[in-house]
Amino acid sequence: MELTELRAQIDAIDSGIAKLIAERMDHVKDIARYKKENGLPVYDPQRERQKLSDLAEQVGGYLAPVTDALFSVIFDLSRSAQNRITAGPSPLKEKIRRALADTEKQFPARPLVACQGIDGAYSQLACEKIFSGGNIMYFNTFDSVFSAVEQGMCRYGILPLENSTAGSVNRIYDLMMKHDCFIVRSSRIKVDHCLLANKGAKLGDIREILSHEQAIAQCQSLLNGLKNVKITPCANTAEAARTVRESGRGDIAALSSKNCAELYGLLCLLDAAQDQGSNYTRFICISKELEIYPGANRTSLMMVVPNRRGSLYRVLSRFNALGINLIKLESRPLANSDFEFMFYFDLDTSVYSEEFLRIFDDLEGAVTSMKYLGSYTEVI
Predict the structure, then answer these.
(1) Active-site residues: which are they?
(2) Residues 153-182: pLDDT tens digits?
(3) Which of 64, 185, 285, 361 is deepest in the core (most CB within 10 A)?
(4) Are 267 and 196 contacting, i.e. CB atoms less than 8 angstroms apart?
(5) Domains detected in the chain
(6) What CA–CA distance (Å, rounded) separates 226 from 206?
(7) Other Cβ atoms within 10 Å of 357 Cβ, number
(8) Model-level pTM?
């Protein structure tokens, strides 16, 4: 047979499958109405396991894994359809609707903003990029920034979330689980670390280098090539520069920004000391209240999924079924748990799309817990 004839046979089979799937989904809706009327849960794991076992036995051999994969997707889509019918009033969805309606149309220009560090820190640069004239209040720790926002001391807080070279700032993920705050905007800052020392110092004189642990991780090639040099982590890159200035020593240097060289009157021994020329840090702006500004096209969620095989896949299949692009997935171990993890998701979806609010119906029953972190835009 010719290829066109073989494909014609496949097309006919596919048409039959499509009609059967449509018929199946009609029955699924009837089942959902029955479950809603009788207070039954959508997810019936025993029923699904038995179905997969029966289907595998019918096809046998190498096709058993095929039916497992295919019908697992069909079951996921069926559950999603049932959830949309059985879902009752959702406080979270109502909160999101209120935020969409009530948030100011213009992003604030001059609010009071909490940042970790001191003058010259990269968080200051991120704040100046996000706000045209924000008034900054500095704090010593990331935890203090969250607390300042949560307690209403500052309307917003700026925090580093991830770096293109050194990866995620894990402490921020842990604090987002702990505190009740929302992401309202994000931004990427080009990071160029310079090796700064007091005037008159030479590279060969340096015996100690101070910086934040993320900056240290981003400059490993340089640091590995230096002999007999002590590497000392500190709270942030700006504090490292200030410490060098206050020490007055000629054998100590800081990995910090060129802005700090001017701010603290230091000499730049090396420009662009980071391993990668394209080195960016992504910062998030958090608030106590849920604010969703016009044009928001990124949504962040945290979820804990059941500790059993296929749980994460079931969550990912829902995003796929809704046509939502997943642009970040991060996992963090949960404290005081038996190998359970929290998963952080960044989703590429407009808050005005039909699929946006359906996310929350579709995840019902698929996760142990979920925390909505906000919908926002990223300032380039």
Answers:
(1) 281, 283
(2) 999 999 999 988 788 888 999 999 999 999
(3) 285
(4) yes
(5) 1-86 (1.20.59.10), 90-103+294-380 (3.30.70.260), 104-191+280-287 (3.40.190.10), 194-270 (3.40.190.10)
(6) 9
(7) 16
(8) 0.83
